[in-house]
Known about the structure:
D-Maltodextrin-Binding Protein, domain 2, 17 helices, 37% helix, 2 domains, globular, 5-stranded mixed beta sheet, disordered N terminus, alpha/beta
Amino acid sequence: MKKKVISALIASVMTASVLAGCGGTAAAPAAAPAAEEKTEEAAPAEEAAPAEEAEAAEAPAVNPDATGDIKIWVADNVVEFTNGRVASFMEEHPEFSGFNVTVEPVGEGDAAGNMITDVEAGADIYAFAQDQIARLVSAGALEEVAPENVEAVKSNNDAGSVAAATVGDTLYAYPLTSDNGYFLYYDSSVITDPSDLDAILADCEAAGKNFYMEINSGWYQTAFFFGTGCTLEYETDDAGNFTAANVDYASDKGVVAMREMIHLNASPAFQNGSAAGEATNVAAIVDGTWDSGTVQELFGDNYACAKLPSFKGSDGNTYQLSGFGGFKLLGVKPQTDEDKLIACDALAAYLADEASQLARYEAVGWGPSNLNAQQSDTVKADVALSALAEQLAYTIPQGQYPGDYWSLATGLGDDVRQGNLTEDSSDEDILAVLQTFQDTCISYAK
Length: 446
């Protein structure tokens, strides 16, 4: 059986997170990139051209007489789809015909909690949100990806999803999606340059239109702070308790980020919010794919999407707005039966490969993490998903935050919204507010 690597890696796991746009909790992102002053926008990883899917190395042979039951948990809306893919897998891999596979409806939001509560009774293969990976590894509920599949997973999926599936240096899950995050929707008849925040605001002001984004939100405001290179993440122990916080908002780069929030709030075009259906008289919206239908109705033939814009900071440098990215992952539970483990790994790899991801997009609209699937004509025709895919190259996988973080972050944004901090505020005044915020964040881990 594959070696289970748990405690040694957890000591180095850093967990910090947000549930995608729905105000829940979630778990630890990889460390924010070190701040790097720059005078031009950093380039994302070069877009991968469609290529032949990298093949996994040869898997260990399974005993032809092996039998057993395999339980899979997926969200209710993909149970039927998953049953169909399992049937296809069995047709293509008769060597696993001795295994009986059952697919049950347990959503990504519930799977991790259920697995941690009772690993033995949990699913053998299950989908979960990437913010839960540290907890699952701590609980011994995730087997590392089969060695023969590691290189194929890393080369076939985008970097963000691979990072989200990794703890320490070990790949623990198979990426399923790259479709949770926020980007820019805009009216192409008004916005002439969606790559620059000041240009967007100028166009909105000139047209008497609004720019819609929520800055008093711990999820959305990270776009500014992570964009300038700030870090906000938590470490946890094996029981999932927060033990330390790595926060550097009270810094020069934090002041730059806060000043840009203040600058945005000062624009007569700015409208605070995150639900596109509540936006009024807008020409640009920062939102996610869940609101794409609403925005298409708003903008009609002028509907367009792009990654988030860059901005020129108060220090004269240019920064790309960042934020959190979210991913769905597929995990395999450790097994005592080596043949069953081989079967579970093979089936998980199949459910997460290019063909399955593309078919899943066509069936239920989940955005693929697979690079070739992302470049398919079908997916590229989805302009919202294409914009999100581009933006995710600049984001940090969500992690787990203390519940109190959310109200604290709202208060930080409210200092701007309510005029406690303005463009006339000194750097010292801004730094003092950020220091209080930072100290309070750290206190949650004590």
